[in-house]
From TrEMBL:
GO molecular function: acetolactate synthase activity; flavin adenine dinucleotide binding; magnesium ion binding; thiamine pyrophosphate binding
Family as reported in the entry's similarity comment: Belongs to the TPP enzyme family.
UniProt organism field: Aspergillus carbonarius (strain ITEM 5010)
Upper taxonomic lineage: Eukaryota, Fungi, Dikarya, Ascomycota, Pezizomycotina
Boundaries of every Thiamine pyrophosphate enzyme central domain copy: 138-233
Name used for this protein in its record: Uncharacterized protein
Cofactor: thiamine diphosphate
Keywords: Thiamine pyrophosphate
The Thiamine pyrophosphate enzyme N-terminal TPP-binding domain, residue ranges: 37-90
């Protein structure tokens, strides 16, 4: 029997059991990115169920399917505010495509049960047919392309999850000579080393991608919803900078011909630096991140899930100090389950993205209380959980330390490991960026 990973708090003899510290759902989300199969989560009633809300909404907005099976109190005490009772359907409906309360006793009855006949139910119903055939619509798009003077393609998450999406996108771009931008979740859908690549578009996108999109007379949005995720973040100006760190990481992990690296991120300026500075090839699932919902703490549990799905890959969580603190307890899961993920922390001692946004409109000192991060000693904390740890404070040691973490054959350190890179925000944060609430052509430098 093929082995499956059961992301649960208890298990059986057939399925592998993982005793998770907290974030069961975010660990399951990467299974679809890596294996094209939905993650299945089992949780208990009450707080077990309520803890699944954020990951369910993350999956819904990012187009990443998970199936959550949750317990409930006995039917005899439902509606009495019993211990750990919660209205599961009311809680889950806004976060899911479909949710239902299933009573297993009904399925176990010995007498025949009614099975609806879809044919009988739908034969006489009114249906709406497309106003144009698929061929007609494709021909119309082709006409628009031929008439356009400055067309551009915006590739999103849907391209990655289409069976032949990246290959067809490359053909369309190169045959039609149309440049390609990608959304954050679309990174990996198009080879960023090709001359047609304009890289990421959006608030933290490259200036040339934003300006090209702004001046285009035709935008082909393929697999993209055109919603704007989170915005800015800082750029360190001290001995170690975030771009320098990402570039060094790329030199040791990025290979245009063979992809054996999977990257996850939290949410914050580290996420945007990675999107801007890491050279993504056309390798679907290379990047797993929280886009539309922007869930801080996503990176660590997502890395665990990705490593389970891709045991031969080097899986690296590029995280920020504030974001990592949200789910730091999952280091225990990685240690106890012998999951060899690597965590690279870009520590700017604060919520840099929030700090930059607030600095645009308010005096920096008024928001210092909520943007300055009171961090633990990440290295000492990692070691206390059985995970190797190292701290980098000098630029001349950066290459050596990243080599230790993720060098050839998964780094010199075996098993889960943490590298904390100390950095400081540069003047004005991560720029250029689109001014908040303005069009792509309004850049703040």
């Amino acid at each position: 029997m093929e082995r499956k990973d059961l992301l649960n708090h208890t298990g059986g003899d057939i399925l592998r059991e993982l005793l998770l510290a907290h974030d069961v759902d975010h660990i399951s989300l990467p299974l679809f990115n890596c294996l094209s199969t939905p993650g299945i989560v089992l949780v208990t009633s009450g707080p077990g169920t309520s803890n699944t809300v954020t990951p369910m909404l993350d999956g819904l907005l990012n187009g990443t399917p998970i199936i959550v099976i949750c317990g409930q109190v006995a039917t005899s005490v439902q509606g009495t505010q019993a211990f750990q009772e919660i209205d599961v359907l009311a809680l889950a409906r806004p976060c899911t495509k479909w949710c239902a309360c299933v009573v297993f006793d009904t399925a176990a009855l010995h007498q025949p049960s009614y099975v609806p006949d879809p044919h009988r139910d739908t034969t006489d119903s009114d249906t709406s047919n497309p106003t144009a055939s698929l061929d007609d619509r494709i021909a119309h798009v082709a006409d628009l392309i031929n008439q356009a003077h400055q067309p551009i393609i915006c590739a999103g998450h849907g391209v990655i999850h289409s069976q032949h999406g990246p290959a067809l996108l490359a053909q369309l771009s190169q045959r039609s000579h149309i440049p390609v931008t990608t959304t954050l979740l679309g990174l990996g859908s198009f080879d960023s080393t090709l001359p047609e690549a304009l890289h990421m578009v959006g608030t933290h996108g490259t200036p040339y991608a934003n300006l090209a999109t702004q001046s285009a007379d035709l935008i082909l949005a393929l697999g993209a919803r055109l919603d704007e995720p989170l915005s800015p973040s800082p750029s360190p100006s001290t001995p170690i900078t975030a771009p320098q760190t990402i570039t060094t990481l790329a030199s040791l992990t990025s290979n245009p011909t063979t992809t054996t690296t999977t990257l996850t991120t939290g949410v914050g300026h580290h996420q945007m630096h990675l999107a801007r500075h890491y050279p993504f090839s056309a390798s679907p699932g290379t990047l797993i991140t929280s886009g539309s919902l922007g869930t801080m703490g996503f990176g660590l549990p997502a890395a665990i899930g990705a490593q389970l799905a891709r045991p031969t890959h080097t899986v690296i969580d590029i995280d920020g100090d504030a974001s990592l603190c949200m789910t730091l307890s999952e280091l225990l899961t990685a240690h106890h389950a012998h999951i060899p993920i690597k965590i690279l922390i870009l520590n700017n001692n604060g919520q840099g993205m929030v700090r930059q946004m607030e600095g645009v409109s308010q005096d920096a000192t008024t928001m210092e209380w909520c943007t300055r991060q009171g961090n633990p000693d990440f290295v000492a904390l990692a070691k206390s959980m059985g995970v190797q740890g190292r701290r980098c404070t000098r630029g001349e040691k950066l290459n050596e330390d990243i080599e230790w973490l993720v060098g050839e054959n998964g780094g010199k350190c075996k098993g889960p490991a943490v590298l904390e890179v100390m950095s400081e925000d540069g003047e004005g944060g991560l720029k250029p960026m689109v001014e908040l609430g303005r069009g792509l052509g309004r850049l703040a430098f």
